[in-house]
Write a structure and sequence with these properties.
The complex is a heterodimer of chains A (315) and B (98).
Chain A lengths: L2 H22 L3 H21 L3 H30 L4 H5 L5 H20 L9 H6 L1 H4 L4 H9 L1 H19 L10 E2 L10 H23 L7 H17 L11 H24 L11 H25 L2 E3 L2
Antiparallel strand pairs in A: 1-2
Helix pairs in contact in A: 1-2, 2-3, 3-11, 8-9, 9-12, 9-13, 10-11, 11-13, 12-13
Chain B lengths: L1 H28 L3 H23 L5 H36 L2
Classes of the chains: A mainly alpha (315), B mainly alpha (98).
Chain lengths: 315, 98
């Protein structure tokens, strides 16, 4: 057995151990922290499989953003439980065996699918690579997301906006057009404000870089947008910026822009070319960049608003 | 040249890993939040720093080297700020609990 195999086995064992800790932990906070560690370990595993795009997404969305959302949920549950067993509110003890059976069946199904794959496994990778010249892109993952499977990506953007609408609909009646989240009261001369002032410009630059190199290297709109969203949240947490009211026209335009531009391009393809979302080959790269810019702005805003929470203060 | 580069890499990365192991041991064994933070910062600053320095002879081009150094600088900056925030929170909480 080679050293690489040992590393693989050790990492896989660690992933399973952290997953088990997440499930069996008595404290919701400890479970969430373990879940974040689990996501980072899984993204390390993706790097070893040379799926760097997936690793970036797992670290940014699966571990980072979901972790923050879960931490917020854990805090709300603790508030409601008044220090008791927070998990009891989420899932009554009688329900837990059913949850375990459903999750176990899904795991078995996935395992059967993986083990049952013919050898060599069927792959569309050569086709994806062969189509690259038509798109003007160099990264087959980005080409799959924006060109070959553009409809999926478009619908994904719509789902994101729907999720945000669902969150906003939970707001109380008197503040439902107001600002999300509680007013942050960080010390303007404190460490957090200093961190935000210095880190946010650098972080936004890195986010844009990750988005831009996505055309030819691992990276892309979603990963870059997550970094930009994190920087905006940092500025809001440090009190440097306030969350805008959800009724503001600019906010709505930004949130609808990604799917809107995407949809407009799709209709233009139907009118001028062969099919919905057909890009004319001569301008494919320019159109793809236009879609991705709109998408990055929208995804960054949507993710930040999802973390900021329901409107809680009047505008 | 590459033999010297490889030697530098092995020595510095092993030294960096020592600080990660020591930091992890401290995180598990030290008695309270402030001392555990103290152990953890060694892994972030020295450990990662030595690993990054050790990887420098292996990269192609100045841009990749600068990216590695930028990662170290960003981790140094954010972990210093985060440690300070956690430390202050722990310190204030210690005053409140009898």
């Amino acid at each position: 057995m080679s050293a690489a195999d040992l590393l693989d086995l050790g990492l896989a064992g660690l992933v399973i151990a952290v997953a088990a800790f997440t499930i069996f932990s008595r404290s919701t906070y400890a479970a969430v922290v373990a879940f974040v560690a689990y996501g980072l370990l899984v993204s390390l595993r993706w790097v070893l499989l040379r799926a760097v795009d997936v690793a970036l997404t797992e670290a940014a969305i699966g571990s980072g953003l979901t972790g923050v959302l879960l931490l917020g949920a854990a805090a709300k549950l603790r508030e409601r439980a008044g220090g008791g067993d927070e998990a009891a509110h989420l899932c009554p003890p009688a329900m837990r065996p059913f949850a375990a059976v459903v999750a176990g069946l899904v795991t078995l199904g996935l395992a059967a699918a993986v083990v049952g794959l013919p050898d060599p496994a069927p792959t569309l990778a050569p086709l994806a690579a062969a189509g690259l010249p038509d798109t003007g892109l160099g990264n087959p993952v980005t080409a799959t997301l924006i060109a070959y499977r553009a409809t999926d990506t478009l619908l994904e953007k719509v789902v994101l906006v729907l999720a945000l609408l669902g969150l906003w609909s939970l707001a109380a009646e008197d503040v439902w057009r107001g600002r999300p989240g509680l007013k942050q009261r960080a010390d303007p001369d404190g460490v957090l404000a200093y961190l935000a002032r210095r880190l946010v410009p650098v972080g936004v630059l890195i986010g844009l870089y990750v988005f831009w190199v996505g055309a030819d290297h691992p990276g892309g709109a979603f990963q870059g947008a997550t970094i930009v969203a994190a920087m905006w949240l940092l500025a809001m947490m440090a009190g440097l910026a306030d969350t805008p009211p959800v009724s503001e026209r600019g906010v709505r335009l930004v949130l609808a822009g990604g799917a809107g531009v995407f949809f407009a391009v799709g209709l233009a393809g139907l009118a001028l070319g062969d099919a919905f979302l057909a890009y004319p080959a001569a301008h494919a790269k320019a159109i793809i960049i236009a879609i991705e810019v709109a998408m990055t702005v929208t995804v960054a805003a949507t993710l930040a608003f999802l973390v900021a929470g329901t409107p809680e203060r009047p505008a | 040249m590459s033999a010297i580069g490889n030697l530098v890499t092995v020595v510095l990365v092993v030294a960096g890993l020592f600080f990660f192991v020591a930091g992890t041991a401290g995180l598990l064994r030290f008695p309270d939040t402030l001392t555990r933070l103290h152990a953890l910062t060694k892994a972030d600053n020295l450990g990662l720093g030595l690993v990054v320095l050790g990887l420098l002879p292996q990269v192609n081009g100045v841009f990749a080297a600068l990216k590695l150094l930028a990662i170290w600088a960003l981790v140094l900056f954010s972990s210093a700020a985060a440690s300070q925030l956690i430390g202050r929170a722990a310190y204030l909480a210690r005053d409140r609990t009898p």
